[in-house]
C-alpha cells in the first residue's frame, strides 16, 4: 500500500525544493534530540560520528543495506532547538542541501524538512525517500516499529507525485 505523498514544492530561505512536514505530540527539545543525537537518529535513519563543533560530521545511513559508506555532512547553521542546516556531496556534481526547522505550539512540535532541488528525476527518487525516513522518525518517536515501514511502499509509488512537482 502506497501512503499518500505529503511533500510539496516550495521556496525556503531562497532555495526551491521539496518540503515535508511532520507533527509530534512532544516538546520541541525531544524532537530536536531525535533529529540531532546519534543514538536517537539510529532508531530511524543512521548515526553520525565526529565533532560537530568542527563544522562537519561523518554520517552513515542504517536502512540502506550493507554497502553504505560514511558521508561528510557540513553544518552550516545549528540553532538548537529550532534550526539545523547541513549539506553533503551527492555524487560528482550534486550537493544535498537539507534544512530542518522546528516549532512548538501548545505541546505539539512541527518539523518542517526541506531539500533544495529542481530536477524532476532527482525529486522522483528523493521525495519518496524522505517520506519513508520521516515516517520512520514518526514511528520511532511514537513507540512504533520503524523497521516495519517498507521502502517499497513509497518508491516507486510516490515518484510521479514528486516528478510532477518539478515538471
Automatic annotation (TrEMBL):
Residues 25-139 form the Activator of Hsp90 ATPase homologue 1/2-like C-terminal domain. Pfam families: AHSA1 (PF08327). InterPro entries: ASHA1/2-like_C (IPR013538), START-like_dom_sf (IPR023393). Belongs to the AHA1 family. This is SRPBCC family protein. The lineage of its organism: Bacteria, Bacillati, Actinomycetota, Actinomycetes, Propionibacteriales.
Amino acid at each position: 500500500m502506497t501512503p499518500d505523498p505529503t511533500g510539496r514544492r516550495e521556496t525556503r530561505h531562497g532555495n526551491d525544493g521539496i518540503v515535508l512536514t511532520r507533527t509530534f505530540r512532544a516538546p520541541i527539545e525531544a524532537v530536536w534530540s531525535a533529529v540531532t543525537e546519534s543514538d536517537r537518529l539510529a532508531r530511524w535513519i543512521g548515526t553520525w560520528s565526529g565533532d560537530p563543533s568542527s563544522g562537519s560530521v561523518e554520517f552513515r545511513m542504517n536502512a540502506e543495506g550493507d554497502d553504505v559508506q560514511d558521508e561528510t555532512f557540513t553544518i552550516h547553521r545549528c540553532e538548537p532547538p529550532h534550526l539545523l542546516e547541513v549539506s553533503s556531496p551527492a555524487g560528482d556534481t550534486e550537493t544535498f542541501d537539507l534544512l530542518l526547522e522546528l516549532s512548538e505550539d501548545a505541546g505539539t512540535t512541527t518539523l518542517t524538512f526541506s531539500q533544495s532541488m529542481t530536477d524532476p528525476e532527482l525529486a522522483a527518487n528523493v521525495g519518496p525517500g524522505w517520506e519513508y525516513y520521516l515516517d520512520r522518525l514518526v514511528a520511532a518517536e511514537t513507540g512504533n516499529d520503524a523497521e516495519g515501514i517498507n521502502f517499497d511502499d513509497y518508491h516507486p509509488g510516490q515518484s510521479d507525485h514528486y516528478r510532477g512537482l518539478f515538471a
